[in-house]
Amino acid sequence: MLKQVEGSAAVAEAVALARPEVICAYPISPQTHIVEGLGERVKDGSLTHCEFINVESEFAAMSVAIGSSAAGARTYTATASQGLLFMAEAVYNASGLGLPIVMTVANRAIGAPINIWNDHSDSMSQRDCGWLQLFAETNQEALDLHIQAFKIAEELSMPVMVCMDGFILTHAYERVDMPAQADVDAFLPPYEPRQVLDVKEPVSIGAMVGPEAFMEVRYLAHAKQTMALERIPQIAAEFKQRFGRDSGGLVRSYRCEDAETIVVALGSVLGTIKDAVDEMRATGIKIGVLGIQSFRPFPLAAVRAALQGAKRVVILEKSFSVGLGGVVTTDVRLALSGLEVPGYTVIAGLGGRAITQASLVRTFAEAIAGSLQPLTFMDLDWRIVNRQLEREAAMRRSGPIAENLLRDVGSVASKVS
Amino acid sequence: MLQIRIHGRGGQGVVTAAEMLSIAAFEQGHHAQAFPSFGSERTGAPVVAFCRIDDHEIRLREPILAPDVLIVQDPTLLHQVDVFQGLKPDGYVLINTRRSFDELGLADISARFRHERLTTVPATDIALKLLGRPLPNAVLLGGFAALSGLITLEAVEHAIRHKFSGKVAEGNVAGAQEAFAYVQNELKELAHAQAS
After folding, report:
1. CA distance B33 to chain A (A)
2. Nearest-CA distance B10 → chain A (Å)
3. Dist. CA A196–CA A216, nearest whole Å
4. Residues 61-100 of B with CB under 8 A from A
5. Which of A44, A190, A370, B145 has its CA 20 to 30 A from that of A146?
6. Residue of chain B minimizing CA distance to A114
7. Which of A272, A339, A282, A350 shows the shortest CA–CA distance to A309?
């Protein structure tokens, strides 16, 4: 059924359709509306056979999720930003134990300086934690991915993070097609755990493993993610067959057929990039965009296949490895090993900086002209950067950077964007 | 694509207004996207929300920099925020005030833009009368329906009832209806003044 709803409300409804049995979460923007929506459903009785557990922190949220998943319950939680960092130890445990928890990460920057706005720093900080990471382009895809995520997680017995851009998606009202309960039930069978805490057949979960078998346990986690590379597109195809939509999968390309320049990106910025691609195509420029839906497992072969015909690749990312450059770039470069394809990394949208179509078109045109720096910070305000550098060169006690820059920027209340 | 930017202050329902507008547009079969300016809003602080309406899927996710329509929920913003920034030459403006553009010190705006598309409505007064609270957001949407003709009053009423229920919904619907009639009348007078 078509609906005009907030992204968070759409995800809450999709998670409810997946019939979770335990939901635990600690509120943090921009994720809060999702678990609020689920909490209301549990309280008013519309989501039955589900326990909503208020916890005292994100660390507790993931710890409860581990316990309930190990006890055989389909388990869901959601977080963002510092919340994800605070639960990090338990996040690693969930995947190390092979528990099929599904978690939404409403992508948000990490402080300091404290910032509630969107970028991908939070989930990227956990890219090596053993969870699968799926990225949503639209609210429709976000809700679809949650339904797929439970299926992927439970088949493989591995946890899945569904990453959706905080505010840009979570707080946006747009049209979504909400699946019917009967269709979701047919797509997603009840959870049959591979391992379960059962008094009738007791096992222990969480043994200490020494050097004799630790590497093997780790390798098996990798083997499962490798299997996921096959299962993710199959499940996306099953989903399409039942619901009629392309959602999820490993990668999705747009106007890449004859493209000389291919942009690579993740998440909601793909929409704005598609508009930029159309604008440039209209002037005869051969440009396309490749969206990565599955960041973990990283689809090396699919990315290589999509990019190998290009003359240049522009990786636009909302994440940044300080002291190196792009995070996604490293993986894309690995996919292109041995091929001579010049690549540009464009860091954009950190901490909620607006990514505009005009800036994208200008940046891509610079890449095509060969004038773009290999590592570019799109729309960086060099004026305030240089002022701070001058201050630091001029005096020892130059003061706190964030406060200095805010003073240089002046009042933001008078600005529209 | 129609792009609407709504300016107001925290607590005036700026974000809710954009959401209701998107619901009204959806109700009429359009694609619509509404989103806030993503600030850490505080009561009284300037807030911006956006709504895009189109006949096909909306992919663009940048803030609205060149709006076709401006709705200003609080006239005290006019001299604090550059609300007219990027407004298209043939854009629509609706301001919540008892005063006229000239009285607000906006004579230059009247001169720069198509003045039959610039209008005011005392939405806070209407809300106080019919809702009992100074919340002008839904009322202004009724005025917007009259000003632009781009969405119907019925769709606005539907969106209000979707967001609110009971007395609050009915008060807001009555307010939207009154604002609709007020702006229609204002436009008639403008047309009349132009003709004579």
Report:
1. 5
2. 12
3. 21
4. 61-63, 65, 80-83, 85-86
5. A44
6. B40
7. A339
Task: Please report the residues numbered 111 through 140 in chain B whose beta carbons come closer than 8 angstroms to any beta carbon of chain A.
Answer: none
Closest residue in A to B49 (Cα) is A416
Total residues found in chain B within this entry? 196
The whole-model pTM stands at 0.96
Q: Does A360 touch chain B (CB under 8 A)?
A: no
- Number of structural domains (chain B) is 1
Instruction: Report ipTM for this prediction.
Output: 0.95
What the block records as the tokens of A185 is 């039930």
Structural domain span for residue B96: 2-195
Q: What is the CATH number of the domain that holds B51?
A: 3.40.920.10
Question: If 0-12 CB within 10 Å is exposed, 13-18 middle and 19+ buried, where does residue A365 land?
Answer: middle
Looking at residue B117, the DSSP 8-state letter turns out to be G
Residue A7's nearest CA partner among A165, A236, A193 is A165
Chain B residue with CA closest to A272: the answer is B60
Q: pLDDT tens, position by position, for chain A (417 residues)?
A: 999 999 999 999 999 999 999 999 999 999 999 999 999 999 999 999 999 999 999 999 999 999 999 999 999 999 999 999 999 999 999 999 999 999 999 999 999 999 999 999 999 999 999 999 999 999 999 999 999 999 999 999 999 999 999 999 999 999 999 999 999 999 999 999 999 999 999 999 999 999 999 999 999 999 999 999 999 999 999 999 999 999 999 999 999 999 999 999 999 999 999 999 999 999 999 999 999 999 999 999 999 999 999 999 999 999 999 999 999 999 999 999 999 999 999 999 999 999 999 999 999 999 999 999 999 999 999 999 999 999 999 999 999 999 999 999 986 655 555
